[in-house]
Amino acid sequence: MQKFLIKLVFCLFVSGIPWLAQAQTTLGDRNSDESVVHMNKVPRIRNSEKRQKILLKKAKVKHTAQYEYYARVEHIAKEKQKTLKKMAAPQYSNPLYFGHKRLPKRNPIHKMKYCKECGIRH
Predict the structure, then answer these.
(1) What is the mean pLDDT of residues 34-45?
(2) Chain segment 59-88, per-residue pLDDT in tens
(3) 71: closest CA among 88, 13, 79, 6?
(4) Exposed (0-12), middle (13-18) or buried (19+): which is 18, by Cβ within 10 Å?
(5) pLDDT tens digits, 49-59
(6) Distance, CA of 96 to CA of 104 (rounded, Å)
(7) Average pLDDT of span 5-34
(8) Alpha-carbon distance 64 to 76, whole Å?
(9) How far apart are CA 90 and CA 10, in angstroms?
(10) When comparing pLDDT for 109 and 53, which is higher?
(11) CA distance 40 to 45
(12) CA 102/CA 20 separation, integer angstroms
């Protein structure tokens, strides 16, 4: 009789496992049903609005090869403008400076010295 009861309890236990698993999936299905209902409450967006949002997102990408090329070109153009502005100063544009920062003095002939910077006596 004891063996029969043990077998009966074992059979009930084994047959109850699929029932428990099914109960868990139905609970999960209920949660997913609630999320579907929640998703249906979200207002729908028109196709044109979606397209505009996608285009705006695409416009924010700046790390393309073309963008980097134009960024380099702009940087080089700015540097060139700076050097041209610097070269317009009389130190570089006036030939009387002979490469000096300030215009060298014109000394009398007996006071002239050899200049190490430009290689001329003045």
Answers:
(1) 57
(2) 556 678 888 899 999 999 999 999 999 999
(3) 79
(4) exposed
(5) 777 777 666 65
(6) 8
(7) 60
(8) 19
(9) 106
(10) 109
(11) 12
(12) 97
